[in-house]
Write a structure and sequence with these properties.
The chain is of the alpha+beta class. It has 5 helices and 6 strands. The chain has one domain (27-129). The two termini are 23 Å apart.
């Protein structure tokens, strides 16, 4: 489900509420430098993890690489954490474009879209995993 709120000029993609309410949720938020939310993506944490699992894990990748952080469970938690290596994460998503399961297509494209939007607008991306 995607909607655009003209009053707030925010895009919301909610792949969570309709199917997974009560389960672990992942939220990705694009914020501009005035801290206004531009784009919000809500999804089931297992769906998010499924996409990340398709990205080859490299133990020697930068310590702030999102794939490394998620694979090692280093810092995502109840608070929003900024993705500081966004271009690297986006490039990793592009790299698996033909590899993920077809049932994950909607989730894959939603994650890739919010990353692309954040990069194109020179904004910041934050992730929160609710437990």
């Amino acid at each position: 489900m995607r909607w655009f709120d003209v009053k707030k000029t925010m895009i919301l993609v909610d792949l969570y509420t309709e199917n997974y309410i009560g389960e672990l949720e992942a939220v990705l938020v694009e914020r501009n430098w005035s801290d206004q939310i531009i784009y919000e993506l809500k999804l089931f944490q297992a769906d998010f993890n499924s996409i990340v699992d398709w990205i080859p894990y490299n133990e020697t990748s930068h310590s702030e690489n999102p794939v490394r952080i998620l694979n090692l469970d280093l810092k995502w938690g109840a608070d929003f954490s900024q993705v500081t290596r966004l271009q690297e994460f986006y490039d990793q998503l592009v790299m698996i474009e033909n590899d993920y399961n077809s049932e994950d297509a909607e989730v894959y494209h939603a994650i890739k879209d919010i990353c692309w939007s954040t990069l194109q607008h020179n904004n910041r991306l934050f992730i929160k995993i609710n437990s």
